[in-house]
Request: fold
Amino acid sequence: MIYPLIAVLLFVGLYGLLVKRHVVQKILGLAIVEYAVNLLLVAIGYRDGGRPPILTPGEDPAAFAAGSVDPLPQALVLTSIVIGLGVVMLLVAIAMRLHQRFGTLDTTRMNRLHG
Amino acid sequence: MDVVLIALLVLLVVGSLIALELRNLLSAVIAVGVVGLGLSIVFLLLGAPDIAITQVVVEVIVVTVLIRLTGRTGRTVDAAPDRRDAVAVWLGGGVLLMLLGLMIHVLSALPRFGSGASLPAGHYLENAPAQTGASNVVTAILLDYRAYDTLGEATVILTAIVGALVVLRHTGRDVRRAPPVPRGGPPGGADDPKPAERELPPQHSAARSRDQEVQHV
Reply:
């Protein structure tokens, strides 16, 4: 039930990327796809009744290793989130330049030929 | 726990659909902000407090920047019907159906939700506190075991910043709204380049290519 819902979230984002005409809506769709992928990776590393991979003082290391959730996808998703921020910033810069050039952010009106 | 998780995921899906269907872009951006903050709660429930904190910070920055973008470029989506909309819906629907088939295949191959950690995770969880001295295993992986990945992340961020600066720079750019300036500066100006100087580079390159031909022969 968890994985299919994340897949639906991914498809909602892809729908925005593929069908919507406005550049801002496309950026939002890309952000939603990023959310879904990050969430899927973290959800795969989850363990029933799992606790965060942070060792508390005085805790038995063996019990900690047996009961904690997977730290590896968390570390990589942390990197992915920050890179997603960089991608969105670059897209916003390009969108501002597009608006300056065409006077609109509607992609169907950007293909006019200018003498 | 599972019920809360599923309810939050449904909220994420509904919020994303609302964000994409709204005509007012400011409301759409705020709806995506709601989705991102809900996502950070989901990360918290999945035992990932580090990611939850990062997600909140990143979400706030993204929403702020997107609100600035919509404030500068207009807040409403043009609802005028376009023939290409139908084509986009059909093509997009076809692509999504194809991906749906793939996705069902992939999801059925995944281990059951909550079934446990991977093999390398066991190694990290057992050895990270003793080997690195860090009680948080995620930071131990980020800064000790996979420090080069983090260095690469910093490189990507630097590249994105440089790219945004290059795209947004003002000097040396032919801006469409500006009055057309003839090449070589204003006519009759003191800094009008001499014709001989302007002719020089082509001649030079031609001579160089001739030299290269001679060398090849």
User: Anything to note?
Assistant: Chain B touches chain A through 93 residues (CB under 8 Å).
